[in-house]
Structure formats: structure tokens, C-alpha cells
């Protein structure tokens, strides 16, 4: 059989621990036999980030900007324990944070659904994709404890010296104080990424804030979205028959729970943090969550939402077989290959991505799955728990 040809290389970002092992296996068993794979390879594994003083992450992000489509393996975000374990010269920043900052992108997380694992919320039939504005607000806030009685003020000094000043509260006792900010430019990028991704995936877009209470701050988010939608996206949305819908966060929560799914829910930073954990838990398993970073100018980086699955890796290093679920990482590859196919007009490559996804779903529907999923099957489907390699072999048989 002739292998499927590619034109533009995919930016391949390798990673750490168990997912790095899965990465190599996915390529060997599920991609290289069928595709004449063209990638520009960047090793984002921690040893290479240390060796290059993290330059490799920056280079990879710039390559993503240049070529448009990347696929990324999970990577370790170093903490103090990792600094010791890997003998690091510095606590390197999260690669995802670095890439997101360079692409100015928004992360969209969506679950992979299978028949035998039912979401906790009975009405959900289709995936719910959460878009989190990963910039500013409480995550970049300045805060301190107010020690005693006194006046708290909000002060802004413009470049020309003009001052805006407002009393926040006249404290009659000790308390707490916090200052948050966001930037129009970041909200604009967030809005473009959301509208683009809705068009891309042909799904409705919901956006929610608390603008009734936050009449300047949250209202700004609402107005920026509205203006960009009216000016730049409305016509295309109408042509596709999809809608943009703004509502209060309280109302959004109620509607999401009652919905069938099948839409994108754009959230401010904190709401997105909390709601994405809620939605992914209710859909079943972190191992079945995909994630894609979309920049406002339409660059894509596909990955799994989970981490490097450290506990499994330590077992692997001891020579034990592990049953780590490769689904989200495989879907990162298929997402990226399909996107590459679409941009380069390669229908065979797109068809291959669809075929591989279908083979994965068929494998799970046939009851062959990794251990994490076995416990989630409630409908009596007979299941066999297999290790990661056997799971991929079963997928390959079905391609
Ligand atoms: P994790 O790697 O997502 O794993 C947490 C637990 O979830 C695992 O121990 C495992 O539970 C289960 N799990 C996650 N993915 C699975 C899969 N594919 N198959 C089967 N089980 C799976 O999160 P973590 O342990 O908090 O983080 C580990 C490392 O990943 C950290 O260094 C962190 O910095 C990094 N991280 C990277 C990314 C990224 O690159 N996007 C995201 C998050 C975390 P059991 O052990 O109970 O089986
Ligand atoms: Mg969270």
C-alpha cells in the first residue's frame, strides 16, 4: 500500500514520562505504517528544555506560528521536586504557558464520547467544549490582607499624569483587598479565537460573564464580544446556521446542565478553570479529554488535556506493563493531521484521520479498553482491560 503523502510539515512537540512512551508507540503503530509523515520535530522533554535553557520551547512555538499546525505531547511543568529530580538549573516555566503566550491563543477542551460510558448528566448527548480565557483576572491579581482600620482606594495614573481615584472601602476593621485587571487586546484575541473555533467546528458559541454585577469589568468582555461578532462574524455564523449567544453565568450554568451538549462555552478565566473541571469530570475521564490551542489568527496546537501520567511512568520504569489510555493523545494527532490535510488540500490525509478516530471508537465499542475506562462502563457491555500496546494493536487491526 502506498503511504499517504503530506506537503507542509506538522510541528511535532515531544514531551515527558508516560506520554512520551505513548507518543513513540502511537507513531510506530498507528501513523507511520500509513502516512509518509513529515514533521519538524522539537523535543520539549524536560532534559532538552534544560539543555537549551528552554529555547526549544520558544523555537517550537515560533514554528507553530510559521507552519500553522502543531501536535504536542504532555510535558512536565517543573516544581521544586522536579528541579531536584531532573537536576534543573532553573524552575522552567510551563511549556503550555509559553506557547500560549507566543501564539496569544485560547484553549478549547472537549471530551471524546463513547456509547458505553454515559455522562453523569443524563441529558448530555454531545460533547461540550469549554474555552477558557487564560489571561489575567484573579490569576494576575495583587492582593493583601488589610491589617486594620483605614481607607482602601483604587488609583490609576495615566501616562500624562491624570489620576483616577475611587474609594473601594472605608475599613473599620481588618480585612482583605484585591486588585484585578485585564486588557482589551487580550479579550479581543480571546473573542476572535472563540468565533473562529465555532466556525471551524460548526457549533454554537455561548459566552457568559457576571455583567449585571460587574458593570465595567465584565461588561467590557460582553461588549467586546458583541462588537466583534456583529462586525466580523455574524454573516458567516448565519450562513452556517450556528448562533452566538450571550447570557449571565448563572443562567449559563442552568442551561448547560439541561442541554444536550454540542456547543462551545466560552468562559472568563476563573469560570473556565472551575467549569472545565466540572464538565470533564461529568463526562467521565480526563484521559478522554482533548485540548486545542487556537490563536486569533488561526494557528492550531493539538494535545491531550491530561498530564504526563507520572504514576504510570514509575511503574513502567520498574518494567511493569501499564494500561495508560492513549485516546486523547491519538486524537491530538488526528486533529492535527486532519487540520494539515484541510489546509494543504489533502483529502486522503483527512480521510485517514477520520478513519483512525473511527477505529479508536470501534475498539472501545468492542469492549477493548484501558483500565481507567473499565470502571466507567455501566451498561453491561462486556469489556476486556488491556495494556496500552495491546490497545493500540487492536486499534491498528481496525484501521
Ligand atoms: P496527570 O498526568 O493528568 O495524571 C493524573 C492521574 O490521572 C493519573 O495518575 C491517572 O490516575 C489519571 N490519568 C491521567 N491521564 C491518564 C491516562 N491517559 N490514562 C490513564 N490514566 C490517566 O496529572 P498529574 O499527575 O497531576 O501531573 C503529572 C505531570 O504532568 C506533572 O508534572 C504536570 O506538570 C504535568 N501536566 C502537564 C500537562 C500538559 O502538558 N498539558 C497538563 C497537566 C499536567 P491513576 O494514577 O489513578 O491511574
Ligand atoms: Mg482547574
Topology record:
Blueprint: E1 10-14, H1 17-31, E2 39-43, H2 46-51, H3 55-67, E3 69-72, H4 80-85, H5 95-103, E4 106-111, E5 128-132, E6 142-146, E7 150-157, E8 163-171, E9 175-179, H6 184-201, E10 204-209, H7 217-240, E11 244-248, H8 249-258, E12 263-267, H9 269-283, E13 289-294, E14 300-304, H10 310-317, H11 327-343, H12 347-365, E15 368-369, H13 371-374, E16 384-385, H14 388-398
Helix pairs in contact: 1-14, 3-5, 6-7, 11-12, 12-14
Bound molecules: NADP nicotinamide-adenine-dinucleotide phosphate and magnesium ion.
Structural class: alpha/beta
Count, helices: 14
Provide the low-confidence segments as ranges.
none
Bound molecules: NADP nicotinamide-adenine-dinucleotide phosphate, magnesium ion
Q: What are the secondary-structure elements, in order, as H or E? A: EHEHHEHHEEEEEEHEHEHEHEEHHHEHEH
Main sheet specs = 10 strands, mixed
- What is the percent of helical residues? 40-55%
Strand content: 15-25%
Strand order of the largest sheet: 2-1-3-14-13-4-5-12-10-11
Separation of termini?
13 Å
Which whole number gives the mean pLDDT?
95
What's the total number of strands?
16
Shape: globular
The oligomeric state is single chain
